[in-house]
Amino acid sequence: MDTCCELGEFEPGSEVAVELRIGDGGWTPLEACNPEEESCSSPYLLGEQPNVQVQLIADSFKYGASNIFKVTASDSAFPPNRSAPGTIEFYVDNKGPEVKMSEPWVRDTTSEGSRVLGPSFEVRFDSVKDDSGVDYVALYQEGNDEIIKSTTNIDPDNAFTMSLDPIDTSKILLQEGSIETRLYVVARDIHGFETPTASNNVFIDREGPTLSLRGHSDSYYYLGNYVFDIDAYDLDETGVSSTVGVNKESVRYWVFDSEAGGDGTKPDDLKLALDNLTDGVHYVKLAARDIRGNYGETSEPIVLNILNTRPNITVTKEYADGTPIVGNTIIDDQDIVYTLVVDDPSGVSSIEATYNDNSLNFSESGQENTWKATLFASDIIEDGPYTVTIRVFNQARATNQDDRKPGTHNETLSVQREGVALRITNPPIFQNYISGKTLDVEFEVVGEGSVRDLECWVRDSYPSEDVVPDPDEGGGWSYAYSR
Fold first, then answer.
1. The dihedral of CA 132, 135, 137, 140: what is its sign?
2. Which residue(s) pair with 160 in the sheet?
3. How many C-beta atoms surround the C-beta of residue 455 within 10 A?
4. Which of 445, 375, 443 is nearest to 413 (CA)?
5. Looking at the whole model, is its pTM more than 0.85?
6. Is the dihedral of CA 322, 326, 327, 331 positive or negative?
């Protein structure tokens, strides 16, 4: 910035001659110049003789070099009388303040990080000095002419900081989808000379943490005591999104049916344990602050579908030829086809089925919610009991797998292809019973079989090892009764 220099007072009628030596250069007479009419690129005289001033041009001088005015006055006599030359030595301050920034030069107020800055941070100076005095220092954003923050509270001999609050930092303009920008400082002295620092890259973070329940989906079903891990991410001090960027002490959650109230619950080790919720739809809200103090919460309630009820299952069976099997007695030498129908809103996760601890494999039948399995006749070739167990697990997610409640079906098949075992109940002690002309005998079925045909044969001296012969063979047996 250019400055006028006063030379003193002179008697009326005098004429003042001014010569200037800049640094180690020679003497140059100064002449009048009218900047409104011509280009005045070097120091020149202003005003009317003898009351003239010297207009300095800052770019003509070197900072720190000695400069001298030599002034001579002459009166109006003829020949004029000239005064002895007078000299004025001066120095020109034609540069801005000397700025030394601290390391780091910026620091977030809350996290004390220097690469990612939140809504409040400080600019740190080791010193700002100027020969003429510092007017102010200001923070700018590259590409933005508006001052972000300035201060005149400067101690040139000591380090100081300039603090920015959320109102100040809101002036920093960010491109959509980006939080990266460049900031720099300008220091200005009392003459208007400025010193800009180099611009530096920083991240301006105004958003709170990203929060979610790990692995959650609105379409999933959960047991009422399920334990979720809370995922909370934000930028760490290096600009990488991680859990380090979150103030874990600030994390809170709400589990609710209609509206989230109160201050929320602080999770233990970022785990959300459901408190035995009942079947139906419930909701979760998450909130937290990052290490820079930015607040964030889930934008929409997280939907929880709770299902504690075991699957409702229906089991039927038939022979391979399509004949329904009523009851549990198997008399035909055919494969048995099991049909399983499952009613559960979450769907089927797995089916575990066995007969006498051997696997019985169910597969989808092509009909909705229906599975089929075949128990081959060759697998139950021997007469006797066969225990069939079917367990159906739904897709409700559980933290502890032992908490899962399957739909169950248990039955015992009685295979009686060789006939039905009977026991005489009356008369008692039949072996010693002496009958008259009429013999009435009562039987009961041993096991779960049922009698379709009953034939009775009699003979004298029944040997226990003999069996009933073919009727055509006789063999001492006489046909007595049938029904």
1. negative
2. 125
3. 11
4. 375
5. no
6. negative
